[in-house]
Amino acid sequence: MSDDRQDADREAAADREMVGARVDNDANVSHYLCIGCPLGCRLEVEEEQGEIVEIRGQSCKKGEVFARQEHTDPRRVVTTTVAVAGGLWPRLPVKTEGDVPKAAIIDVCRMLHGLRLEAPVTIGQVIAADVLGTGVDVVASRDLPRA
Amino acid sequence: MITPKPAHLQPRYDVVVVGGGPAGLAAAVGARESGAERVLVIDREPEAGGILQQCIHPGFGLHHFGEELTGPEYAQRAIEQTVEREVDVLSSAYVLDVASDRRLKVTSRDHGVAYLDAGAVVLAMGARERTRGAIRIPGERPAGVMTAGFAQKLVNLGGMLPGRRAVILGSGDIGLIMARRLVLEGVEVEGVYELMPHANGLNRNIVQCLHDYDIPLHLSTTVVRIDGRERVERVTVAPVDASYRPDMTKARDIPCDTLLVSIGLIPDNELAHRLGLRLDPVTTGPVVTSTMETTRDGVFACGNVVHIHDLVDYVSQESMLAGRGAGAYAIGTPTPPDNVRLTPGENVRYCVPPTITTDREHTVYMRVTKPMAPCTLHLGDVYKRPLRYVFPGEMVTLKVRPRFLEGFHGGSLPVSIVPREEGGSA
Q: A11 vs B198: CB contact, 8 Å cut-off?
């Protein structure tokens, strides 16, 4: 077995342990996988009395910024589809125009799945304004002409 | 966005582009910019845009359009660029054959079978997904086994769910994206299984598609059997050893009704075969010059037909170049022949294009065989550049400027990527 292979296996073992951002035995340290580049640095955020005291594991500034954001206020752009009648396709792709709190993703999707639109739709058209009070609009990702 | 359909097909076009995905659309733009008057794109779907139309997630366009877009947004912009330049798009159409004199046999919903002559042809058919058959998973052949990209089309364009409880084989980005997509549509995803000891997709997708939804990723594990009479009833998974042999003593059954496979793409080169083009055994795509011309005069190729890209932005840029080459050929502008051959050396699987010229700047795309960090890229002994890291899943791009090659009078230049000691000189 080559060194590369062993390294890869060690990485794999680390990956297996890493199921999402979580808090380990030491209650003050949370773990994150950096998404800045393929290096995938394992980031640690140490907290004391609700304040971040140290961020470790990053090999560049991106990692630190990412760890701080993920730890304090994880946010995501949500994309899904909405039912539409009379269009070229029966679904319209939509996106949140900015990021929304990670915890709101499922509820945003549920709400959008209850909508029924009528073609035509224009790209950028607001499908749900201020979705679930997040302050973010959901907009169409494309023109959808009538079939 | 649907492009206006040509009411009448012309018997002759300056440039005919086969495929209306991001590669074909950019090639058409490039052809118009180089002076070709009549440019036709032929696409099999009812609208242009290709696979981007079903890739509803963000992450596209940062390099090419300078902002982050979803797939459909990227597609719409690419289509608008062709509309502005009066490119004709023939949709719901299929190219059956291209003869060596560049006469195309085309069948379409609107015009039936027709023959068209082209001053130059651009092949931009993209890639196909590898299927269950490509890795020969034993077992029965029930419904419910499909590629991740096909499931994506069902869900995002067709509004249909592939099943209720899914297992995903392969950790490529399409598989990871579909894991999240299915969860958001109410399908249970039991887990993602990957033969290799490392994930193949971007870390961003590992985090935002798997970790966010607590979907487990099982590395060094594969599907060894599929069971079910009409419909998938269960799959069997087992861990593999260092030679990828499954350990059947540790096999375990998973009840499910759907298996998605996300196990790689292969260039779609039926037409290249028919044309007798020379293919590269590593990329399996046509061998091209620095203007993306194949071994047949006036036949160009770009995008995933040539080599599998990881970013659509690079597809667009490479395809603009192919389109410009095709346009120049069609209107009779001569291009100087390539005089430098780039030969893959240490940790370089291939270079596209494999040949370049010394008189102008070239963007060379390459793929490595193994991860390295930090490392140095060497272009013969005329140029070197330090790199923080390289990974097989991330294409390396190198701009070769004429000044690198001053005093180099043609011939072969080995391209290699070698380890660099931390803190040492590159």
A: yes
**B203 contacts chain A (CB < 8 A):** yes
Q: Taking CB atoms and an 8 Å limit, are A81 and B212 in contact across chains?
A: no
- Structural domain count of chain B: 3
Are A11 and B180 in contact, with CB atoms under 8 Å apart?
Answer: no
B207 close contact with A: CB closer than 8 A: yes
What is the Cα–Cα distance from A42 to A58, expressed in whole angstroms? 7
Whether residue B28 is found in the same domain as residue B114: yes
Q: Do A88 and B206 touch (CB under 8 A)?
A: no
Domain containing residue B74: CATH number: 3.50.50.60
Distance CA B420, CA B127 (A): 35
Residue A10 Cα, gap to closest chain B Cα (Å):
9
Interface test with B, best of A15, A19, A127 (most B CBs within 10 A): A15
Domain shared by B255 and B148, yes or no? yes
Angle at B152 between CA B146 and CA B153, to 5 degrees: 95
Per residue in B366-423, pLDDT tens?
999 999 999 999 999 999 999 999 998 889 999 999 999 988 877 999 999 999 976 5
pLDDT in tens, A6-42: 454 444 444 444 444 454 555 689 999 999 887 889 9
Q: How does pLDDT run across B140-182, given as a tens digit for each residue?
A: 999 999 999 999 999 999 999 999 999 999 999 999 999 999 9
